Structures are given as C-alpha cells and as structure tokens.
Amino acid sequence: MADSWLPSLLTATPEEGYALAVKLSRTAVKLTQPSAEIRERVRGDYAENFEALIAISQVVATNFQTVSAANGYWRS
C-alpha cells in the first residue's frame, strides 16, 4: 500500500477530508486526460466559464460526501 497514491480515505479533520476530495477530483482529471500539455491548453476554456466552475465544484462536493461518509462525518 505504500506505493498507492490513495492509501486511505480516512482523515483526521474535515479540512483534511476536503483537501482529499480536491485531490481525488484533480487525479480523476489527470487520469482522464494524461497529457499535461492538453490540460494546460484547455484550462482557459473553463477558467472563466461559470457553468464549468459550478460543475467542478459539484464533483468536489460529491467526493467530499464520499470522504465524509468514510470518516463517519468526524463524529466519535
């Protein structure tokens, strides 16, 4: 498991959980489009597109729901 980029969904705090949700989202983009050159080239297409930015936020929110559930919503 040491070589895994995602050894666990468990985090100590909600803030760490949110950071993990962002990482999950970013990694999905990198795996879907492995070319850094293409990702950089199309970044301008969505950087000022409010619909695209809302869609990105929704993906992060979905990933945060997953991480939150895995962490029992940080309740003891």
Structure in words:
- The protein is mostly helical.
- The chain has one domain (14-74).
- 68% of the residues lie in helices and 0% in strands.
- α1 packs across α3.
- The two termini are 26 Å apart.
- The mean pLDDT is 93.
Which structural class matches the secondary elements? mainly alpha
**What is the count of DSSP helices, taking H or I runs of 4+ residues?**
3
The main sheet comes to: none
Strand content: under 5%
Q: Which residues sit in consecutive blocks of at least 5 with pLDDT less than 50? A: none
The chain-level mean pLDDT equals 93
Q: What best-fitting shape do the alpha-carbon axes yield?
A: flat
Question: What characteristics describe this protein?
Answer:
single chain; 76 residues; mainly alpha; flat
Condensed summary:
This protein is mostly helical and 76 residues long. It has three helices and no strands. Helix 1 (14-32) packs across helix 3 (50-70).
Structural topology:
Blueprint lengths: L13 H19 L3 H12 L2 H21 L6
Helix pairs in contact: 1-3
